[in-house]
Amino acid sequence: MTAGAGEDEGRIMPDHPEHVVVVGAGLGGVRTVEQLRARGHQGRITLIGAEEHPPYDRPPLSKQILTRDWEPERAVLRDRAGLDGLGVSVRLGTRAVGLHGSTVELSDGSGVTGDAVVLATGAAARRLPGQPDGVAVLRTLDDALALRDAFGSARSLLVVGAGFIGAEAAWAARRLGLDVTVLEAVPVPCERVLGRGVGALAARLFTDAGVDLRCGSAITRFADEHTVELADGTTVSADVVLVGIGATPDLTWLDGAGLETGDGLACEGNGRVVGTSGVWALGDMAAWWDPARGRFHRHEHWTSAVDQVTAVVCDLLGEERSAPVVPYVWSDQFGLKIQVLGRTDLADEVVPLDGAGLRGGPVKGTIVGYLADGVLAGVVGFGAPAKVARYRALVGRSPAATDSAGAVGERLG
Length: 413
Fold this sequence. Notes:
This protein has a 5-stranded parallel beta sheet with strand order 3-2-1-7-19, covered by helices on one side. The longest helix is centred in the middle third of the chain and has 18 residues, at 191-208. Mean pLDDT is 91; it is low at 1-12 and 404-413. The protein folds into 3 domains: 3-124 and 249-317, FAD/NAD(P)-binding domain (3-Layer(bba) Sandwich), CATH 3.50.50; 127-243, FAD/NAD(P)-binding domain (3-Layer(bba) Sandwich), CATH 3.50.50.60; 335-404, Enolase-like, domain 1 (2-Layer Sandwich), CATH 3.30.390. Helix 1 (27-38) packs parallel to helix 6 (302-317). It has helices at 27-38, 80-85, 141-153, 164-175, 191-208, 302-317, 385-391, 399-404; strands at 19-23, 44-49, 89-92, 96-100, 103-106, 111-113, 116-119, 123-125, 156-160, 179-184, 212-215, 219-224, 227-230, 235-237, 240-243, 247-249, 261-262, 264-267, 279-281, 286-290, 295-298, 328-333, 336-342, 349-354, 366-372, 375-382. By secondary structure, the chain is of the alpha/beta class.
């Protein structure tokens, strides 16, 4: 164990930990507690959460919560009674402020020591330099409720960032009748995930929905909480401004722990934090070793967190881990479900598999394959969930396998 693991170097985690401390009461933390109990752990579990709200699911925040289709209670993962039913000691409204070995220091001055510690503190919304306090972000339930209230008296929305959160919020605002402008610094939405050609297809969803999408628009400063100035000297204003440019892993509370942090807390392929013997991390805060990329990588999505929970709990309890699943991400926006299978960012070639969107036809029903060295590395589908499901088993196999599933052999330049 390195010095960064803290002062508790003499402590050795037993084969079957009696007390597991879970830091972070979001999806990853709650699913960890549930799986520990489901796999037979009968010892103590302490769940620590910075927010006072009962644990809730985040995907509805930028969709059903914003449009008032759901009240917040419907997004709750486990209420107090549900947590009591798991036999877990809950410390909500208490932020972790330090980690020393297997002892978690809390904002109220107390500490909790476990035989094993699982970190799942997630991430915070990324902010721009000089961003006024009155400019909205969308990461927590309180963020969503504040933005929803603002929509009630607004006529216009300006969104900075055309990623999944920006797109979902823009669609929610359009459904509520607001005029929406979206500024994106790069040439197309989600270029890092989709690539230039398929990103242009995603851009059509914005414009077809009546959104004023302006790609290649870099912000130089905020004039105030309603107005931004662009690099060309022009300004754009709206009643409500939302910055949706991704998230930053919540790691500042670990500054004194001496752990390897960068864009995420460095973890082995089973989630064990590098340099420790009894600490694991998962979800948006964790950068797991990825052999396909040859580096530590953060998987910042709902399904990745759930998959990582299984790996962590199995390792913690000394059980065999099932084979890794194909990475999967989805987003509900502009009336379509956009799905991403596999690792599209590794691709060197793109091929149309279904639909006519890449030839100027309807976006809905379009499915695109991403090849890396001739192997199907990823698939993206627009409003075609049943067909996308057919390709899950083909990711990682040769193009001949995709041809047998009806793929088109045409290559895109």
